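I hope you will forgive my troubling you with a question about protein structure. The full record is reproduced below for your convenience:

——
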Amino acid sequence: MDLRPNTGEGMSLPDVPAGAIGVRKAVIVTHPRLATGSPVVADTMAALESCGFDVRLIDKIDPRPFGQPTPHVDDDTEIVVVLGGDGTILRAAELVKGTRVPVLGVNLGHVGFLAEFESFELEEAVRRIASRDYTIDERMIADMEVWIPGRDAPLRDWALNDITLEHTDRGSMIEVGIEVDGVAMSSFGCDGVIVSTPTGSTAYAFSAGGPVIWPGVEALELTPLAAHALFARPLIIGSKSTFGIEILDSSPSSSGGWICCDGRRQGRVPNGTRVIVRASDSHLRLARLEDVPFTRRLVTKFDLPVIGWREQSKRTAHARWNGAADDEATPGISATPDTREGA
């Protein structure tokens, strides 16, 4: 599971918190398993403390019920360092939503798409943090309103990666109607729909066949899941537009839907529920230490085959031909026996 690309555009210098003249505060967010079983966590705490930071360790962030506010770090926190994978970064995002505190990810997981450093680079990362030698890359966030029948006010939540609305009964589809800017566009039965940010376009939406959106594109993407329709294709809208999704009550067997934000805050919603998704006014601030283009991250993290199979076949055939030619030209090697005397 992006923001503006790391090419210098849209980048800014880190803020200096009001309390930074005195004690500098840092928060380390990690997984409980790593907090007790990995020396990396203890080493990072010790390194930050040796640089003058007051360090707080958080190794468990329980998901709040859908639509409920999440706890935040103190406003005078200088930085949140995440030791883990993308899932841990999504948990840390809950702590800084609505603040200007940046997040720096150090990958101890699998892909680590949002992470800036690998674990073996921790010493360099701490040095750069201590000297405030990093830039800020802002990531788009999606806000949502959920209007449930019979309620006068909506439930509100948000997502850094994606919002999913899926069927609750695995034996039947969910019927949804799709709107853009209040205009009905389509309706179909499906397993669900995903609304993702550019950050989330490389996550669940990518697995469902959605396109990759470059971080500098301020847009939202809607990707159907196993839609029973001929023309149910992913949709991309600009940051000024909104998606509307309604759970239609057209199937007597439908038991409503299940809504989830970033795989964390989730709950059941009944038929007739309307979901409105728009770009948020706030952004997640990622600390960047290297000026690496998004395309480079994409190729590296996904290990993309940048050489197609046709070109690869040509190169393989060419290498074999050259190898055979080299064998024929090597002194002392002959394709036919040499019968000359004294040879």
